[in-house]
């Protein structure tokens, strides 16, 4: 496996790559309705791309209020710490921007992953796009 790296992406220029990953993970795999996947926040969010070499394999976004979302890694690259690299890049950027608190809506099965990164569950379970989720928060030290 070649090196995996994460960088900030340009929503305008790299829209096709960002959309391809999210469509594959959320719409095709998890049956999230397209109208729930795409929203007006994409235009103002900081987007991240995880790449193996120059091939995009994962993405995430950070909103100006510290909300992290749309964390997704293509199926063939899961279990290879791509999500870790992606989240570490997002958290580093959030702290650089002075966002002392980061929040996300996590699919319940993914909560141990986020807990390892310092997030705590702060809500009961609820359904989002038919998938069980919980709210999680991380405070920078």
Question: Would you write up a description of this structure?
Answer:
The chain has a single domain (4-139), classed as Gcn5-related N-acetyltransferase (GNAT) (Aminopeptidase), CATH 3.40.630.30. With 141 residues, the protein is an alpha+beta fold. Strands 1, 2, 3, 4, 5, 6, 7 and 8 form an 8-stranded mixed β-sheet that branches. The protein has helices at residues 15-29, 34-37, 82-96, 111-116; strands spanning 4-9, 46-52, 55-62, 67-73, 101-107, 120-121, 126-128, 131-139. Strand 3 and strand 4 (67-73) form a beta hairpin. The N and C termini lie far apart (34 Å).
Report a brief summary of the structure.
The protein has about 140 residues and is of the alpha+beta class. It contains four helices and eight strands, in the order βααβββαβαβββ. GO terms for molecular function: acyltransferase activity, transferring groups other than amino-acyl groups.
The domain count comes to: 1
Q: What is the N-to-C succession of helices and strands? A: EHHEEEHEHEEE
Rg (C-alpha, Å): 14 Å
Helix and strand content put the structural class at: alpha+beta
The count of strands amounts to: 8
Q: What is the CATH third-level topology name?
A: Aminopeptidase
**How much strand?**
25-35%
- Give the CATH class: Alpha Beta
CATH superfamily: Gcn5-related N-acetyltransferase (GNAT)
GO molecular function, one term: acyltransferase activity, transferring groups other than amino-acyl groups
Keywords: Acyltransferase, Transferase
Domain N-acetyltransferase: 4-141
Pfam family, one: Acetyltransf_10
